[in-house]
């Protein structure tokens, strides 16, 4: 009889220890991210044609996404279900319109409806600072994931792809022909980003964990974010 009690006691201890370990190490799970095509296929293999039409993405609730326009003729951003297309007009002007009847040669997107809001610390000024900060904040998080920032920038540089029609591409240098840069100063903006360890050359550049597109509050300027000095920003991370 004593042996039976001893066995039951040991089983109970094992069960308690197992439950304690589970409860002390919860793992966040973020909404699934969809990835179509790859940046490296565009840059190195000249696959410029569209592999996804944005109007085929059915669930628009809390939808975020980014990528270039097919044939590298502009930039795309989905911000909370609204699709924006930016194109070069001149070296100092651009057009930005809402229209989801457009395709992309690579695109990353996902739905987020609940956010954790963080005040971006004053010592976070640049994209590299931001990348490191997000990495530290999300060590236990499932990746990849979407995030966003809302607030004011001191200055920034964005670009829009503007590849001349008929151009053949077999290297990043060729792919960036016609790319036009725009400088912004003291603007209220939203920045949509995607973070991943495993998608360099797919939807982030080879030297970065994040891909960012910026749109001004008045929706008159939008493009891929290359450089930024943050001023007063809030960082929104997906809620598990």
From TrEMBL:
GO terms for biological process: acetoin biosynthetic process. Pfam families: AAL_decarboxy. GO terms for molecular function: acetolactate decarboxylase activity. SUPFAM superfamilies: AF0104/ALDC/Ptd012-like (SSF117856). InterPro entries: Acetolactate_a_deCO2ase (IPR005128). It comes from the Bacteria. This is Alpha-acetolactate decarboxylase. It comes from Urechidicola croceus.
């Amino acid at each position: 009889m004593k042996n039976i009690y001893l066995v039951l006691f040991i089983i109970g201890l094992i069960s308690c220890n197992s439950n304690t370990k589970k409860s002390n190490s919860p793992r966040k799970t973020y909404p699934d991210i969809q990835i179509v095509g790859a940046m490296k296929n565009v840059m190195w293999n000249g696959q410029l044609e569209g592999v996804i039409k944005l109007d085929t993405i059915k669930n628009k609730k809390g939808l975020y996404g980014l990528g270039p326009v097919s044939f590298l003729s502009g930039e795309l951003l989905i911000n909370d279900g609204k699709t924006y297309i930016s194109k070069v007009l001149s070296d100092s002007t651009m057009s930005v319109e809402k229209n989801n009847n457009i395709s992309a040669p690579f695109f990353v997107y996902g739905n987020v409806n609940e956010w954790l809001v963080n005040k971006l610390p004053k010592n976070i000024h640049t994209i590299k600072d931001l990348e490191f900060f997000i990495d530290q904040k999300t060590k236990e998080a499932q990746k990849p994931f979407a995030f966003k920032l809302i607030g004011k920038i001191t200055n920034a540089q964005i670009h829009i792809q503007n590849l001349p029609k008929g151009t053949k591409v077999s290297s990043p240098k060729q792919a960036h022909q016609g790319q036009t840069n725009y400088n912004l100063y003291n603007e209220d903006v939203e920045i949509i980003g995607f973070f991943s360890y495993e998608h360099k050359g797919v939807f982030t550049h080879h030297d970065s964990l994040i891909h960012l597109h910026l749109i001004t509050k008045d929706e008159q300027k939008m493009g891929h974010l290359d450089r930024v000095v943050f001023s007063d920003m809030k960082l929104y991370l997906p809620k598990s």
